[in-house]
Amino acid sequence: MTERYEGSFYGRRKGKPLSPRRTHLMETELPRLSLDLSEPAPQNLADLFDVPVREVWLEVGFGGGEHLLHRARENPDVGLIGVEPFVGSMAKVVNTLNEEGLRNIRLYDDDAINVLDWLPEASIDLAYQLYPDPWPKKRHWKRRFINPQNLDRYARVIKPGCQFRFASDIDTYVDWALQHCRDHSAFEWMAEGPEDWRKPWANWPGTRYEAKAFREERVPRYLTFLRV
């Protein structure tokens, strides 16, 4: 029987105190932008957004928000759901949304499993999990977000024929994610050669975590799985 982990899959939620301006935005703008999980999810997720969207994408753990914001800017007809429990990162994205007026992003600032359980079946056209907390110590591996139960959650909400994309610069987590996804009957690794997992996806903006990996001479890997 597969061991289940009951607890959070992320570490600390707070870092440096927010500026008064960002504190105000978190109090006034985040409630407007946040998903309301106390209400049933709309069967058509496009109804979550203030602008017409043709697809809905999900990013679990958007970190500094570089990728989430880039995809929103280059795809104004796509709705993006971004999940991030770290307060400083969420405040940065809320501030940018307020400054730029982007209307195709909705946010959630707690555990991603709540969103995955709330979303309707086969409602997501593309899902990303980029540079998640690797929990490098072996005794903490059970806290890694990629596990059979959470892959079941992803499989339920991602439309068949669509993709789940994963990136990490930690070799043990890359191997871990690859093994778990390949062992899951709902996912098929799409790589046909080494270059397929060495190169990022089209129009890749990079992230602060990727930049740190390069500075510390670690090599990022980019895994793409088809929801079969």
Automatic annotation (TrEMBL):
Residue intervals passing through the bilayer: none
UniProt keywords, alphabetically: Methyltransferase, S-adenosyl-L-methionine, Transferase, tRNA processing
One Pfam family per UniProt: Methyltransf_4
Chain sites annotated for binding substrate: K137, D169, T207, R208, Y209, E210
Pathway: tRNA modification; N(7)-methylguanine-tRNA biosynthesis
Annotated positions binding S-adenosyl-L-methionine: E59, E84, D111, D133
HAMAP family noted in UniProt: tRNA_methyltr_TrmB
Record's protein name: tRNA (guanine-N(7)-)-methyltransferase
Gene behind this protein: trmB
